[in-house]
């Protein structure tokens, strides 16, 4: 019994030390991190995070429901395609062809109105909003200095295009399983402005492509300064209302009334995500509205003139869009860490949306293996 109480005493002292140390070192985010990962039996967060964080509503305008193709409901996945798709706990799989839904399926009780986290697909949304701000002359061009909006970057040579192309040279680190890394602090912390100010430009901006969520977060700060609106307000005005989204979206914040987690965490559904893909298929034009300038649109989905860290030319990334040539097809897409995808195949006039809980972390030519599974399945369906 004496040993038991002695052990309890040491556990208590260790716990107190851990708590005090976390607060004194600015790592109080660790408690929310553990609560939503390890204590729920997983190493990463769930896609169902709408109620985990404070959010800001992205309002809709007049909904424009999708038209369903005459083949809708008549097409099926092959047994092997279904096996591969379900292996990664897919929640939604939707294919649009010629501006009509041709295939749609949901799993685990999800539906066309279910909200899930976009994760890093939000970065591609930021790219669209940046183009919209340029069209409005809120931002002069991608060549404009970031310091015009965020004075702390004065003298660094950092431009808007460097944030878009993930070539800022800032010493962010992309570590998904490190509870003390930037992404954990950005996701579970409560002050994104304070967090980002800890990181500095320590390499030549515009030279090396390095995928870092902090770049997108900075871009969201620039958008707020440039437009005088929250990112959610601007997204509602320049994107969600324009494309006739059917349901409001919700963007996670660092605290109540605070800043959007611009690098992630835009909560919506497969049908409305597909409208983002359709907008990009239509060169940034929706009906009579030109949302993106032509030059900006073309640069968005073209490979940025940067180098990878190994010295090879960038063959993966544009303005927050991933780019690949696959089976002779030019494809660009948005992606999130749990296998969230908005895939555009312009020559086929196709949009593919996949939402789910897992992805294959193994990459082929820089792209996750499950990307090929969903792309192949969609091509098979329309053929």
Please count the beta strands (DSSP E, at least 2 residues each).
Answer: 15
Overall tally of structural domains: 2
| Alpha-beta classification | alpha+beta
Question: What overall geometry do the principal axes of the alpha carbons give?
Answer: globular
What percentage of the residues does DSSP assign to strands (E)?
Answer: 15-25%
**Spatial arrangement of strands, main beta sheet:** 2-4-3-13-12-11-10
Question: Which CATH architecture of the largest domain?
Answer: 3-Layer(aba) Sandwich
- What is the rounded distance between the termini? 72 Å
Structure description:
This protein has helices at 2-24, 29-36, 79-87, 121-135, 160-164, 182-188, 192-196, 213-227, 231-240, 270-281, 294-300, 369-382, and strands at residues 55-58, 67-68, 90-97, 100-106, 116-117, 249-252, 266-268, 285-286, 289-290, 322-326, 329-335, 341-345, 350-356, 363-364, 367-368. It is an alpha+beta fold and 383 residues long. The chain folds into two domains: 1-43; 49-382, Beta-lactamase (3-Layer(aba) Sandwich). The strands form four sheets. The protein has a seven-stranded mixed sheet with strand order 2-4-3-13-12-11-10, sandwiched between helices. A hairpin with a 2-residue loop joins strand 14 (363-364) and strand 15. The longest helix has 23 residues, at 2-24.
